[in-house]
Amino acid sequence: MRKTIGMNEAWKFIRQDVEQAERKAFNDEHWQHVTIPHTWNAIDGANGYEYYQGACWYRKTFSVEPSCEGNRLFIEFQGSNSITDVYVNGQHLGQHKGGYATFRFDVTDVVTYGTANVLAVKVDNTVADDVYPQKADFTFYGGIYRDVNMVVTAPVHFDLMDYGSQGVYIVQEQVSKEKAKLNIKTIVVNDGGEEKKVNLWVDIYDANHQIVTYATKEVVLTAGESQTVELPCIIDNPTLWQGRKNPYMYSASLSLISFNDTIDALSIPFGVRYFHVDPEKGFFLNGEHLPLHGVSRHQDRKDMGWAISEKEQVEDMGYIREIGASSIRLAHYQHSQFFYDLCDQEGMVVWAEIPFISIMSQYELDGINAKQQMIELIRQNYNHPSIIFWGIQNEIQIGGERPEVRRLVRELNALTKKEDPTRLTTMANVLFVNEEDEYNRMTDVIGYNKYYGWYHGKAEDFAPWLDKFHRINPDVALCISEYGAEGIVQYHSADPKVKDYTEEYHALFHEIVWKTFAERPFLWATYVWNMFDFGANIRDEGGVKGRNNKGLVTYDRKIKKDAFYMYKAHWSDDKFVHITSKRHVDRAESSMCVKVYSNCKEVTLYINGIEFQTKISDDKVFIFEHVPLMEGMNEIRAVSAEDNDFYVDIAKFNKVDEPNPSYEAPVEEKGEEVQNWFQMPDLDGELEELHITDDVYSTRCTFKELFENEEAAAVLHQFLGESFRERPTYSMTQGFKIDTLAEMAPDHFTDKLLYALNRELTRINKNK
Ligand code: GCB
Fold first, then answer.
1. Of the options 3.30.70.260, 3.40.50.300, 2.60.120.260, 3.30.470.10, the CATH number for the domain spanning 3-153
2. Given a cut of 70, is residue 481 above it in pLDDT?
3. Residue whose CA lies nearest to ligand 1 atom number 10
4. For residue 525, with 0-12 CB atoms within 10 Å meaning exposed, 13-18 middle and 19 or more buried, which class applies?
5. Which of 544, 457, 363, 497 is nearest to 740 (CA)?
6. Average pLDDT over residues 623-637
7. Which of 594, 522, 532 is nearest to 560 (CA)?
8. Catalytic residue check, 631
């Protein structure tokens, strides 16, 4: 019978490349003792300084019981970032490229039994041109950051070498309320030296462990043969997996039986459901409309990076459940099996994706690694009912217009549909992709990452854009795959503005945008960027280095920002009241405005124990104006009574003489949607007429194109400032034409600036 033996303990590690470290006889005495999950970037990955990216080594001694001889042995890595070379007793077993999927090596013929073996692993998180991601707004934490196991099987077993999957695919051929027609596809392997006859049994159990149905088949395998065996199975009157309402799970118990022995067995949880997306009405699960109230998640955590345990994942899910979300975009790569399992159990509808993000390789134009990661993602996660959407790219247009990018996106879509015709494909376009672009029709449904109200424009700009897109493409199912703003809980303002980084602007932004989305049921989903702050070492935002602070919850998961409660009020049925701006303690004004988020109908405010006002609201936001403050500490209490229960929240505000300067972010130009990084030109003398032709540079070119030419780059430096290219947001904009950015930010790219840029740029010939 199959045995899985944990191999997380007793590793030695060194944070550098070392020659001959793969050898069995090698002195690693002075190396550090570590336990898996491990990363070498737990601290330097999110502090804003350069983080270590390079090759490092892990070594471990292990023994295999003599009783295992005659079986097959596999070493399994559930996640190691990003290029991993595995050696046993000095022998190279292979290399895996990609930091997020499970992979295994067959070690049967290289281990010794009853004596010590040495496993040596080189892991390298340097960006390689043929491995995705190439560039992204998050830290690429290096290390073996998910579990390592040894799996021991009999010579005849369910395949473990099919792209890291379990070798079992429960295909939902047709599901309705009356019947779930399944085809259980298994890959059975005979690694033994002789022909073998086995019986394959599949028993389907319901959630109460009662058998529902079963199927069986005799399988004859010649020596060395791998066979795909299909077992059709029907569940009559199935209980459907109905999202958060009823995430009903069955389980398939599979076994390979030879005479009286069960020689291999697996238990696979699954749920049955059907779904569709209507471009006018949104998402439907089992025929019922289900609004997908979504958040995105990255997998890292403060001081841990990606080396988290199940405990942190359960906590993350706890926050997502509490806010009342019904869907999660698991960005920007494959997450751990454990998390997809949690999504199944909680009834979260999932968008799962590969890290084909920002920029396509300049040299590897067939997309070999992107395709490999797509197949791994699908085959390893095929049986999760929560996954409904496969995401094939994120903002891959940032690298500029390249025909090979379009070709690869189309190929990835075709590959995904071939691997799994039962689910929907999707992708996240960068904001500047034109509404009429064919990118909007390559996948089954589409998403846009839009940052009105942060990188450009105002939060209110969502409404006209959404309506315009829908008018142009009434038959395209649209979602907002990302939207957000920075919110740093240190900063506060009674008059919040774009780019002030305050907790108040963050909350106000989400209030406005959520209202806009809620009024547009044609959106099939919306995903807040992001549920949690995360490590992005290239960033220096509002005085915080190495972080993206757009989360609704802080990186250490200790503080739920006000915006968290805004969504909770809309999405959750668990009653509460929440006074906002509680961290804005010191107030220099003699009266203030108190804003309360609540999903109760009525909220009463008490000031220093005295009843002030009662407000009734349907839109979850209760605003109490002119709340008087006495000198010193004031206690504000918000109370709601509903269904015989009381809900209370308390805040304390300190009336002071002078505003507290620590509430202000050390950034200039608050209220500006694009930072004013450029020099306004002096236009002396007569204005000459400019001729913009294809052979010269101009503002019709993308930033990327311009920066690639030394002279054009010098012009940009002159007008946009030296540091323009180093800005974290540059990676977002390099595929933009200057004219496109100018349309979005006309106040900054004035006609005068555009004229001056063109006057200089058109003097440079592209072919020179
Ligand atoms: C995006 C990216 C995401 C970034 C986000 C941001 O569009 O897809 O990876 O983190 O913007 O915050 O800028």
1. 2.60.120.260
2. yes
3. 137
4. buried
5. 457
6. 97
7. 532
8. no
